[in-house]
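Hey, can you fold this?
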Amino acid sequence: MKILARTNYVKISGVVLLLGILFVPSLPSYGHLYGYNYQEWKNQRDNFLVQFDTDPHTPMAGNMSTLMFSVQNLQTSQDLQNFTARITITGHGSSSNSTIYESESKEVNGDFSQKYVFPTGGLYEIFLRVDTPTSIDVSKFTVFVSSPSFQVLNLVYLLLPIFIFIGLLSGAIIFIARRIYRKK
């Protein structure tokens, strides 16, 4: 009877653990962009922080994407006020002469976004120029843009952690079951 109780305990624990991992809520970060995938650039000298993310997180070539920026005071995490922003997009590793897109300079406060359609898949560099009354700084971010040729690779990368987790969980359950039945 004790072996049956232990086996039920192991099964219930495994199910609870699996459900806990699958349904973990996405907790907000301390910045203005939420989630775990945004990129940051810090300027200690001029005391500001730039956070960057895209929506969707992996843009698809030919589809509308949103480039999201949050410019904050590094000490207080408050939005930086009254600055001019300019966005430039280039292909990864390309020279400065091969600019794909350059926005108009615009006055912004803190959080802002820009809609953009990436023409092809691959890596892109996003530059944000921030002009404040006391400084001019440029931050750089890298974005991977998916295309139909990358979809199989994306699927493998998405499913690989799940397969690894299932394998580890199965191995742990088999190991525990063998130890329980060996003691019997």
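Oh, and this one too while you're at it.
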Amino acid sequence: MTSKDAEWQLELEESAQGTDFFEAPGSTLQIEDAREDVAKARLELGESTPRVETARARRHSLITAMSRLEAVIASPAAAEGWLGAVAVALDEVRLAFEEHVDVTEGSDGLLPEILQIAPRFATEIELIKAEHEGIGEALDVAGLTIDSVLEIGSEDPQPVRDRVVTLLGRLGLHRQRGADLVYDTYNVDIASSD
């Protein structure tokens, strides 16, 4: 007996016991099947889903924060307040990235939806989750580098620039991997709003 058959049997028993007078037996399964059919039709048409749109909004926030960080890190290091501006821009990237991870990995996130729709991408999803962890660590290292430079009062901007540029490169590659996964799953260009 499959899980759907078991659910159908349970609904029939509940209906026979009179626990739900207004719901026909099997109606819950029929609704779920209809939702799956609509999702499949959307995918065939290359339409987006609410989770894709939420991820797209977070993606836009992340690229905006990354652009600010890149602009600050490329500005003259000898300028007054350069290191503080880098720290602020790095914090913006950290916040945007944390929001990105929440909307992609959360129980109502994009990655669980992709896994449900296209289980063949399970390995790619695991790679993306591992990248999330690695990028989180790179954010921490960049922050620690800034703290260390502030603490010792160094005038050399290179350690900070090296960490931040490496971080931005990793984020860029991660965004490309995510765009490819979304396109392969939904036939939707999530990067179109970038």
